[in-house]
Amino acid sequence: GMRAMKAIMLLSAVSLLLSGCSSAGSAFQTAKRMDTIPAYDQFLAEYPENEYAKEAQFLKEASFYNESRNQNTNESYDAYLEKYPNGFFVYQANLEKDRLFYKEVSLKNTIEGYGEYLKRYPKGLFELEVKKVQEDLIYFKAKREQTLEAFDRYLQTFPVGLYVQQIAETR
Q: What span, in angstroms and rounded, lies between the C-alpha atoms of 141 and 61?
């Protein structure tokens, strides 16, 4: 009688619970298969407290970062950094921005451009290379101009530079 009824109710509650879990699991697998931001958004809207929610959040962020990488622009990395200021790919996004700026600066190949790079990325990926090229540019400019001011600019910027000896010999 009553006991059998309670057992049936308990069993149906348990099976409801289990089917809820498996439907969340299959919804998560579907989102992963689609691997798009809208798919993860939909999963998170339907199952915000689910055991897969944290992984879905991470995969959504990874998708966003991959879109940024595919576009490979300052704007795309800025969009990622704005949306995920403490995200998993912040370091990588900043390295990519460094790389893009270096590429831009090296195409211009100007003393001012390299100075701007060093201001923006004082410990950047290309810091040493930039300093070397900048030193060459400043020295060869001074050599072309053959003025005291130009040589002084070099010596003030690079007091222990590669060309200090050549400058001392021309004075």
A: 47
Q: Tokens representing 84?
A: 């995920």
Residue (of 105, 109, 100) closest to 136 by Cα position: 109
Task: Give the C-alpha separation, 27 to 43, whole Å.
Answer: 7
pTM: predicted TM-score of the whole model, two decimal places: 0.75
Query: CA 138, CA 159: separation in Å to the nearest integer?
Result: 13
Highest mean pLDDT among 21-30, 82-91, 153-162: 82-91
87 conformational bin, left if phi > 0, alpha if psi -120 to 50, beta if neither: beta
pLDDT score for 3: 76
Spell out the residues 6+ positions from residue 109 whose beta carbon is closer than 8 angstroms to its own: 133, 137
Instruction: State yes or no: pLDDT of 167 exceeds 50.
Output: yes
| Residue partners of 70: CB distance under 8 A and separation at least 6 | 76
Integer angstrom CA distances of residue 122 from 18, 39, 131, 149? 56, 40, 10, 26
